[in-house]
Design goal:
Layout: E1 4-10, H1 17-28, E2 34-40, H2 45-52, E3 57-59, H3 71-81, E4 85-89, H4 91-104, E5 108-112, H5 123-139, E6 142-145, H6 148-157, E7 164-165, H7 184-188, E8 195-200, H8 209-219, E9 226-231, H9 237-247, E10 253-256, H10 262-268, E11 271-274, H11 283-290, E12 294-298, H12 301-304, E13 314-316, H13 321-333, H14 335-352, H15 355-374
Parallel strand pairs: 1-2, 1-4, 2-3, 4-5, 5-6, 6-7, 8-9, 8-11, 9-10, 11-12, 12-13
Helix pairs in contact: 3-4, 4-5, 8-13, 11-14
Length: 375
């Protein structure tokens, strides 16, 4: 049987949740059946990793959704590669391939990793983006939601929305605490008896790094043997650095740029914190849980489908600095609690969020859509 030329399309080359998902998917695809190529709309470390894996990867630069000026380049790439099926990850990717794909008769599967409309946007912006999502979801051959709450949001906001829920999955061979060691403590000079609290995400309002920093500052008097490490880049990074200097906490809070050695960084941590305002299904959280880390996360959509408060992590309300500070103190003082939550967290990923199982579900969706096209 001839392999199907499959395009995986993503908005950017920087590593985030959707990009990590794409990498896991490409790594786990059955290469006897699928022949993947990748289109990204910016450069970045994800592009470099794909090329190192021998995956044909093209960058057509744009940071805009529905960028009409890129349609000619997109079409040329699809024609050159003989693409038979497109899997678009996220709004920008879907919006920049959908029109051309429909003209060429190529089916598109659209995975919604997180909606582009949110409650904190202006009425006009929210509704413009909702209309954009309605356009995309109504024209795709199949929509995939990464969580049940992700799907429910679409059902409530978009008339006639339909999707299939396929949870994100983690490569447990890569994120295996038994085979990964971390040197971050040595690198930063953090003593072994200090509780290392870790944040790995974009420095954006959505991910709430500044709220975490404020909660950590409040928590320090109650749990002084703590060190906060925040890893990532984004538009709030400069403000975060300013706060560290203003507070005089340079010996307690460390800011690092994005790193490729995520499993090794996680291996050094005691607690992973994700204080987001919303999530589709957070891959960074799943990675930390796969590594057996105790987690603190906010009680928002996709996250609450993963974390059960007091069982495999602690949950706090989004934006509640006092609650988050209390959780940090509790975690810092109770090693037994951290160990119990971490073990349960790892079992949660093993049983429900495995990358290989996720890939088999997605491959079944690919096959189904191609059969529909034949008929």
């Amino acid at each position: 049987m001839a392999r199907v030329r499959l395009l995986e399309c993503i908005r950017q080359g920087q590593i985030g949740g959707g990009e990590t998902h794409l990498l896991s998917l490409v790594e786990n695809l059955d290469r006897d059946r699928w022949d993947p190529v990748v289109l990204s709309f910016t450069e970045g470390p994800m592009v470099d990793r794909l090329k190192a894996m021998g995956i044909t990867t093209r960058v057509i630069y744009t940071e805009k959704p529905f960028d009409v000026s890129k349609r000619k380049e997109v079409r040329q790439f699809l024609e050159e590669q003989g693409v038979e099926l497109i899997h678009a990850h996220g709004t920008r990717a879907a919006s920049n391939v959908m029109h051309v794909a429909r003209q060429m008769g190529i089916p598109v599967i659209y995975t919604v990793h997180g909606w582009s409309f949110h409650a904190d946007q202006s009425f006009l912006m929210r509704n413009l983006r909702r209309l954009g999502e309605r356009y995309l979801t109504s024209r795709s051959s199949l929509n995939i939601s990464v969580s049940a709450s992700n799907k429910q949001t679409g059902v409530e906001a978009i008339r006639g929305f339909r999707s299939r829920v396929i949870n994100n999955g983690i490569d447990r061979n890569k994120f295996d605490p038994a085979s990964v060691s971390g040197g971050l403590r040595h690198e930063l000079g953090i003593p072994e008896n200090t509780v290392l609290i870790l944040f790995i995400a974009r420095f954006t309002a959505h991910k709430q790094p500044l709220t975490l920093m404020k909660a950590f500052k409040e928590a320090l008097p109650g749990g002084p043997a703590m060190h906060l490490v925040l890893v990532g880049d984004g538009d709030q990074k400069a403000e975060a650095q300013t706060l560290v200097e203003e507070w005089g906490l340079g010996k307690k809070i460390t800011l690092l740029p994005f790193r490729q050695d995520v499993p090794q960084v996680l291996a050094s941590a005691d607690v992973y914190v994700l204080p987001s305002l919303w999530e589709g299904l957070p891959i960074g959280l799943l990675e930390a849980m796969a590594m057996g880390k105790a987690v603190v996360a906010t009680n928002v959509d996709g996250t609450r489908e993963v974390v059960r408060d007091g069982e495999n992590g602690l949950m706090v309300e989004a934006g509640n600095t006092a609650q988050l500070a209390k959780a940090l103190v509790e975690m810092s003082k109770d090693a037994d609690l951290r160990g119990r939550l971490g073990r349960c967290a790892r079992e949660t990923v093993r049983s429900k969020f495995d990358a290989a199982a996720m890939t088999r579900e997605i491959e079944a969706a690919y096959t189904e859509v191609l059969k529909q096209k034949e008929n």
